[in-house]
Amino acid sequence: MKTKDRIILGALTLFNQNGERNITTNHIAAHLEISPGNLYYHFGNKEEIINGIFDNYAQELKIRFKPMAEEDQSNMPSVQIMLSYLDSIFELMWNYRFFYANLPDILSRDEKLKQKYTQAQLALHDNLIAIMNNFRDSGLIALEDDELQALTKTLHLVASCWINYQTAQLSDKEITENIIYQGMLQMLNVVRPMATEQGREQILALEAHYRSRVAASC
C-alpha cells in the first residue's frame, strides 16, 4: 500500500477511535511508524488528510447508492435490495463515524471541504430519490411525489444526524455498532407507517433482522 493511502487509513482509524479533535499529525505519524516529515511530504496538514478521507467516503456514496438497473432489480427480492442499502448505510456510518459525529465543526474549518460535502449530498439525494421511486414501482410504498420527496429527505436527515445526536446524548461514551443498528431501526420505523401491506411485511422482517444484531452486539 502506498504511504499516502496508509496515512489516510491510519488517520481514519485514529479519528474513529479517539475523536478527530484529539489527534494530531504527530499522532498519525507515530501510529504508522513514519517520520512527521514523511507525512508532510504527502499532506501539508491535518485538514488535507481529512479531505483525503472524505474523497474516499464520497466515492463510496456514489458506488453504494447507485440506483439498480431495472433488470437487476427484477432478479432480486425487494427485501434483499432494502437490506443491501441499509447495510451500506450502516457500514458508512460505522467506518466514517468520526465525520458524522463532528460534522458541523469539521465543515466550518474548511470551505473547500464544505463545498465538496454539499456536492456529494446533492448527488446522493438524487440517487436516493431514484431508489425510493424504484421501491414505489415495486409496490412497497404508495406515496405521491411530494410525499416521497419528504420521506426521502427525512431518511437522509436521520442517517446524516443520528451519530451526531447520539454523541451529544452519550457525552463521554463512544459510539458503538449497537447505536448505529438502532439508527437503522429508527429509519425503518419512519418508513413502516407509509408502507403498503407487502412493504410492511418486508419492513417488519428487516426490523427483526436489525433487532437481532442489536441483541448480538450488546
TrEMBL record:
Keyword NAD appears in the UniProt entry: no
Keyword presence, DNA-binding: yes
UniProt keyword terms in alphabetical order: DNA-binding
Source domain of life: Bacteria
DNA-binding residue intervals: 24-43
Pfam families reported for this sequence: TetR (PF13972), TetR_N (PF00440)
PROSITE patterns in UniProt: HTH_TETR_2 (PS50977)
Domain named HTH tetR-type: residues: 1-61
Name assigned to this protein: TetR/AcrR family transcriptional regulator
Source organism of this protein record: Aliivibrio finisterrensis
